[in-house]
Amino acid sequence: MSSPATSRQPVLFLGHGSPMNAIEPSTWSASWRQLAAGLPTPKAILCVSAHWYVNGTYLTGQEAPPTIHDFGGFPQALFEVQYPARGSRALADTISQQLATWNATPRDDWGLDHGSWSVLVHLRPSADIPVLQLSIDRRLPAATHWAIGRALAPLREQGVLILGSGNITHNLRHAVTSDGRTTPDWAARFDSDVAKALQQHDEAWLTKALESSEARLSHPTPDHWLPLLYAAGAVDRNEAVFFPVTGFDYGSLSMRSVQWG
User: Is residue 4 situated within a structural domain?
Assistant: First the structure.
C-alpha cells in the first residue's frame, strides 16, 4: 500500500491458508504483495479473522495489541514472528458505538491472530498502520454477520480498510489427507458459485450458501466462511468486484481473494 491516504477505502477478503505463508515464499504471499502495491494507504485496518470465533462481538482495545500464535506443530521461526502494529482504543470505541445493536465491546485479552498477521506481514510489512480485530459471534445467523458488515461500511469513508480473512473453501481434513494436487469437484464448484454470486452482489445466495449438503464439504464449520460476509456486507451493490488471487492450495483449499472498490 504505497499511494497517499484517501478518504474512501476499498474492502478486501483474503484467503489466508496456512500460516506458513507468513514466512515462506509462495504464490500467495507474492500475490498479496503485488495487491498491496496498488492499494491506497489507509488510516487504520479493521480485520475480521476466522480465528477469533467466540460467543460475542468484541474489538481489540489495546494501544499495542500482541501478536498471537494461535496454532501448534509449526517451525519455531513461525512462533518468533511479531507484527508490532499499534492499536487504537479511540477507534475501537467508535466502532463499538456503530455496532451497539450487537453489544460490541472492546477487550484487552486478545490481539492480532494469524488470520490477520500472516497476511498483514505482506500487505503492510512495516506495520505502520493501526490494526484492530473484530470477533465473529458464532451464535449469530449468516444474515446478521452480513448486517454487521453493512454497519461497518461508513468506516470506509473515514479511511479504514476493512479486511476479511478466511477461505472460500476450508475443509482441513480433506486438505491434509489428499494428495495435495487434485482439486475435488465439490471445491471447484463451490468456489466458482461463490465468485459468481459475489459478482452479482447476491446477498440472498451468499447468506444461505452453507445450507446445502455439498457446501458443507467446503465448510464443515463456518468460521472461515463468515469473514467473507462481513466484507461483502460493507460494499455497495454497484461496486466492481475483482479477484486478484485465485487458485487452490493443498488441493481443496481455495485461496481466492476479493477486492471491492
Answer: no
Q: Which residue has the cell 453489544?
A: 103
Q: How many C-beta neighbours within 10 Å does residue 84 have?
A: 14
pLDDT of 4 reads 45
Domain that holds residue 46: 11-260
CATH number, domain of 254, equals 3.40.830.10
Spatial separation of the C-alpha atoms in residues 139 and 39, rounded to whole Å: 34
Region of 73 on the Ramachandran plot (φ > 0 left; ψ -120 to 50 alpha; else beta): left
Counting the structural domains of the chain, the total is 1
- Residue 177, pLDDT above cutoff 80: no
**Model confidence at 81: pLDDT above 60:** yes
- Does the pTM of the predicted model rise above 0.85? yes
What is the overall mean pLDDT for the chain? 95
In whole angstroms, give the CA distance from residue 107 to residue 113: 14
Q: How far apart are CA 175 and CA 73, in angstroms?
A: 16
The sheet carrying 44-54 orders its strands as 105-107, 58-60, 131-137, 44-54, 160-166, 11-15, 257-260, 241-245
